[in-house]
Amino acid sequence: MKVLSRLIIKGGVLAPGELKSICQTTEEIGLKAISFGSRQDIIFPEVVSPELLKSFKDFEVVSPEDAKKQNIISSYVSSNIMPSTSWLTGDKYLYVLEQFRETPILKVNITDPKQHLVPVFTGNLNFIASEHEDYWYLYVRLPEWNQTLAYPVLIYSWDMARVTSAIEKLLVEEPETIETIFELVNDAEETNNITIDNPLEIPFQPFPYYEGMHRTGNDKYWLGLYWRNNLYSLDFLKAMCDLCLTCEIGKISITPWKSFIVKDIPKSSKLQWEKLLGKFGINVRHSMLELNWHLPVADEEALKLKKYLVTNFDQNDISTYGLTFGITNYIKTTNYFTSIVVEKNPRPSELSEYKIRDTYNLLYAKNFDTNEQEYIVHVQDVDMVELPGLLMELSRMYFDQLGNEKEETVLPESKPEIEEYDVYQCSECFTIYDPEYGDPNQEIEAKTPFENLENDFVCSLCEAPKSAFQKKVFTRV
Prior knowledge:
The protein is an alpha+beta fold. It folds into 4 domains: 6-195, Sulfite Reductase Hemoprotein, domain 1 (2-Layer Sandwich); 212-283, Sulfite Reductase Hemoprotein,Domain 2 (Sulfite Reductase Hemoprotein, domain 2), CATH 3.90.480.10; 290-401, Sulfite Reductase Hemoprotein, domain 1, CATH 3.30.413; 419-476, Rubrerythrin, domain 2, CATH 2.20.28.10. It contains 9 helices and 25 strands. It has helices spanning 16-28, 50-53, 90-98, 160-169, 178-188, 234-246, 270-279, 300-315, 387-401; strands at 6-7, 13-14, 33-36, 42-43, 61-62, 72-74, 108-111, 125-129, 135-140, 149-150, 153-156, 194-195, 212-216, 220-226, 232-233, 252-254, 259-266, 293-294, 325-329, 340-344, 359-365, 375-383, 419-426, 432-433, 469-476. Strands 6, 7, 8, 9, 10, 11 and 12 form a 7-stranded mixed beta sheet that branches. Strands 5-1-4-3-15 form a 5-stranded antiparallel beta sheet. Strands 2-16-17-14-13 form a 5-stranded antiparallel beta sheet.
């Protein structure tokens, strides 16, 4: 596994001109592609000498030797295209991010609890929007802590950077309690806090589909692009940036899933975008089975395992809609953000001279909710050939309990009640319309029956007409 240099992209937000400049400089140092990391940063897929990295004069490069510096991630990428807190607009994210003048040492997450694309609790400092305008919950998990603790007050938007800096200065004192941090930060900084009147609630929702062209309202689209090898051609990216500038698109957003999203594509320019994708042979119809995976960067072994598992899912015609997966080496301090984790065990040191097969553990998030922060061990020390069947078993468990996340576990002596419910599936691209959730991309509210949709309703993914949808009966416990 290579140790690679990263380019800090604060909040995962780039202007098209900035991305084009990065591409041109990357080309000048001899590379043909860039990759994206799970912290919404840019990764150089090949080892680059420190001398050549100096070419990026307008951007901060983090070399493998300087891995302490961390990127800030944000859910700006989901604003205006996914459920959101009313006051947390795209502009608000940009104003907040602008307050952070220095690259933090700690991992900082700035997120909306109503979206599900960007992790909420994977940072050391997790700022989560409250219902009070310009105020945020703060959940702290310092590098040596084994749990995430709630800061006792709400933080004002314009204090977030100063609070972050103050907490980082406290690291040398190795604070062990959230109360200690609160007291020391209050001594060091004058902040505009308010009391917490309601505990944080993060509603469960299946993981969103983020690839392809989607409508937002009647006159705009957004485009999500994912490439399975995580190598994004510089020639394509430069051409895309030029088209963004032509269409007066101001920002490009990196996701934590090694993909990126372009928002505010005018309806009048949709054909130009489709021509651009066709010219470069870009596929925007990857199997749902292979999306939504977190893998270590440049880890060929993990990529090979993912391909093996996805192929097995495909051969068995298994659905994984709404689930996310992670492949990782066994690290006790890792804070995961996937529904299911495939954990590779370390090889016993006493057997290092022998060639032995790897073994794996399977874990799943409580209720399969990535924000629960509690993972349950499903199996331990199993061989790779056992993984596909066990993952399919977990997939069935997920669909059995889907919709019952907040209910108490049924006691063994109780007989679970089976409920049938109708969904509607596009016969062209197999997108599901579930009346329970509606279609936020087309401003269709939850609980809207399919029969009540307008006749001009179209599939949010492929734009097939309403008549292309077929009723399917699902069951749940």
